[in-house]
Design goal:
alpha/beta, Rossmann fold, 6-stranded mixed beta sheet, two-stranded antiparallel sheet, 9 helices, 20% strand
Length: 250
């Protein structure tokens, strides 16, 4: 058997050989947000570290199915790009870069510019690629229209798109902090704000709920898979659940 069709495997859990490898290989490009906000939380595993593990697992899975995997790292611009290839040896430089980024503060000097980066990758990648965006969507509240336009551009170029939205659900979604004055710091701008959590918790939750609902609706309209990921979950379970869902609906 020369190749295994990963798409067919995802749908049927059965292995099918490919007749023409170059024409039929699924090309997966993992697009990982490495901006400052991804360093949160600073105790335990951060969103960035979680995203790196998720990226590596997905790349390994793709190449294990004899498909192709590549990687793009970005903040306010593309910082690293590796085209999709189907050799295990190609994992080495990508994994090394992930380890370098997670362990260094050198990269964390910029805000996020997700929309402009997605426009670039829409044209950069081979048409009909499988684009996996891993991000916390931080600082996108006032840029939703630009972000939706960029996502539409990806679909226009015939890319299949999956979004993993990473967050620490306890604090970033539910705003569960001790009921005492705390100082919140914007990791991308450095701005600090002292607040009493119980005074703004309800308003914050409402804002998050509206944003998430609108984003999910747009993903549905554009036929984009959207998965909200609490980083308290294991990345193995997240990937397994996605593959089970993919197989059941496609």
């Amino acid at each position: 058997m020369k190749n295994v069709d990963w798409k067919v495997y995802g749908k049927t859990n059965k292995l099918f050989s490919k007749k023409y490898e170059e024409e039929t290989n699924l090309r997966c490009q993992v697009v990982l947000d490495i901006s400052d906000s991804m360093r949160y939380p600073q105790k335990g595993m951060s969103k960035l570290e979680y995203g790196a593990y998720l990226s590596a697992a997905l790349q390994y899975l793709m190449i294990g199915q004899r498909d192709a995997a590549g990687m793009t790292l970005f903040d306010d611009q593309i910082r690293f790009y590796a085209p999709a290839k189907s050799k295990y040896s190609w994992l080495v430089p990508m994994f090394s870069k992930l380890e370098e980024v997670v362990g260094s503060t050198e990269y964390f000097t910029h805000k996020t510019a997700t929309a402009s980066v997605l426009h670039q990758v829409a044209m950069k990648f081979h048409r009909r690629s499988f684009v996996v965006l891993i991000t916390d969507l931080f600082n996108q509240f006032d840029q939703t229209d630009a972000l939706f336009k960029a996502m539409r551009h990806l679909r226009h170029e015939k890319h299949e798109v999956l979004v993993f939205h990473l967050l620490d659900r306890k604090t970033e979604q539910n705003f569960e902090f001790p009921n005492r004055p705390i100082i919140l710091k914007d990791l991308e701008s450095g701005e600090k704000l002292e607040v009493l959590p119980h005074q703004i918790r309800d308003k914050y939750r409402q804002m998050m709920t509206r944003f998430n609902a609108r984003f999910k609706q747009k993903c549905y309209e554009f036929n984009i898979d959207f998965i909200e990921v609490d980083i308290a979950q294991s990345y193995e379970k997240v990937l397994t659940d996605y593959l089970v869902k993919r197989r059941s609906i496609r």
